[in-house]
Design goal:
30 residues, mainly alpha, 2 helices, 0% strand
Length: 30
């Protein structure tokens, strides 16, 4: 799982956020 760091999940695909929803890693990190 590294897509959330390459592409902005909130702007590209909201679905990826839930798929790559890690404990303080996806949205919190970006």
């Amino acid at each position: 799982v590294y897509s959330f760091k390459i592409i902005p999940p909130q702007k590209h695909r909201p679905n990826l956020i839930r798929l790559f929803q890690q404990p303080g890693t996806s949205q919190t990190d970006r």
